Structures are given as structure tokens and as C-alpha cells.
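Title: Comparing notes on inverse folding

I've been comparing how different people in this forum approach sequence design from structure. To keep things fair, I'm posting one structure and asking everyone to reply with a full sequence. Here's the target:
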């Protein structure tokens, strides 16, 4: 699979072995490859955690690559969501996909790619927390990445951390108040909008997951 370089903010950095700070970049698949990966996610995987709106995700991918072409700034949450979808999709790559979507030479290659994507997605999500970038796309990305973590290592401390982080951001975005009759001046989308429905899906998935993974249950 070929890649497209995406520069990230200068304070999203890592340290080399000698302690020197080094700016980082992210390599995304090319546009046509990302579209194939996203379509597999929408067809085969999204029903496992139905927290996205398919047309909106397709539009998000188009917007990301349009901005890259025009060298415009990207929204961190949008990139996180795309990377999380790539992580999940490559994790669930099947022998059938090797023929219908020849992006990888083997299941093992797709699995290795998934591990790398998961690491990069979590790094970018951590960065979004540090810069207080609170978006529903970042929450969706956290849910999807958290699901992969659960499949890899079970309901671990790491999984608890990410789901708790997602719930905290969802609370700050007032997703729990979408259908409240008295929202005042809160910046909440109209109840009959696509944004509100996505917010409901995200909030109730988090509530259900919190109950499911709670200690002692």
C-alpha cells in the first residue's frame, strides 16, 4: 500500500533514543486506497459499533484529501477518525479481501499495518487531548480504536482508559443532553439533525460500554 505524507503540528513530536525532540508526520494511504478501506469498514464492520453516519464519513474522507491537495490545515479529529477506521479495517482483513481489495499481499501484512495504525492513532488522540481538541470525530475514533484494543488484549486497563476518556469528552460536548427539553445556550445540534443522531449513537454506545466493562459485572 502506497502512502501520502501528512504534516502534523510541530508540538506533536517524539523523542529519539538520544533524547532529541523530532517533529513527526503521518503517512496516510492514497485517496483511492482510503476509499476502499472505508467502504469495507462501512460494509463489514460498522454494525459492530454503530457510531458513525456512512455518508458523513465518505464526505469526511473526500474533505481530508481535498484539503491535502490544496495544502489546507486539517482537523485533528477528522484525521483521528480516518486513522481509527483504517486500524479497525486492516485488523479485520480477510482472505476474501486479498482478492477483492488487493491492497495487501497477505493477512499478516494487513495485521502488521493494523498494529502500526493503532499506535499512530492513539498517539494522535493523546495529542488532541493535550491541545483540548474536543470533537465528536475524536470520540468516534476513540471508540473504534478501543474496540480493536479489546479484541487484542481484552477489557484491559488501557481499554478502560480510552473509553473513560471518550466518555469525558462526550460529557463536555453535552452529548448526554441532546434530547433534553431545556438546553438553554448550549451548543447542541437540533434534535432532528444528522449531527444529533450521531451524538445519540456515540453517547449510548459509551453508556452501554461503561456498564458492560464496569468492575464486578
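Reply #1:
Here's my take.
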Amino acid at each position: 500500500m502506497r502512502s501520502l505524507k501528512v504534516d502534523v503540528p510541530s508540538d506533536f513530536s517524539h523523542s529519539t533514543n538520544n533524547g532529541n525532540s523530532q517533529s513527526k508526520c503521518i503517512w496516510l494511504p492514497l485517496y483511492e486506497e482510503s476509499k476502499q478501506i472505508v467502504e469495507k469498514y462501512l460494509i463489514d464492520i460498522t454494525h459492530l459499533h454503530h457510531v458513525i453516519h456512512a455518508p458523513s464519513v465518505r464526505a469526511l474522507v473526500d474533505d481530508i484529501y481535498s484539503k491535502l491537495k490544496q495544502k489546507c490545515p486539517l482537523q485533528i479529529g477528522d484525521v483521528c477518525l480516518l486513522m481509527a477506521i483504517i486500524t479497525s479495517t486492516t485488523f479485520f482483513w480477510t482472505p476474501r479481501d486479498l482478492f477483492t481489495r488487493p491492497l495487501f499481499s497477505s493477512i499478516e501484512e494487513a495485521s502488521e499495518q493494523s498494529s502500526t495504525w493503532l499506535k499512530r492513532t492513539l498517539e494522535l488522540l493523546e495529542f488532541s487531548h493535550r491541545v483540548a481538541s474536543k470533537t465528536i470525530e475524536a470520540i468516534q475514533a476513540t471508540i473504534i480504536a478501543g474496540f480493536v484494543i479489546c479484541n487484542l488484549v481484552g477489557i484491559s486497563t488501557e481499554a478502560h482508559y480510552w473509553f473513560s476518556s471518550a466518555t469525558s469528552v462526550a460529557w463536555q460536548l453535552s452529548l448526554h443532553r441532546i434530547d433534553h427539553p431545556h438546553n438553554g445556550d448550549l451548543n447542541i445540534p437540533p434534535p432532528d439533525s444528522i449531527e444529533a443522531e450521531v451524538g445519540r449513537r456515540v453517547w449510548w454506545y459509551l453508556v452501554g460500554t461503561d456498564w458492560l466493562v464496569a468492575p464486578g459485572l
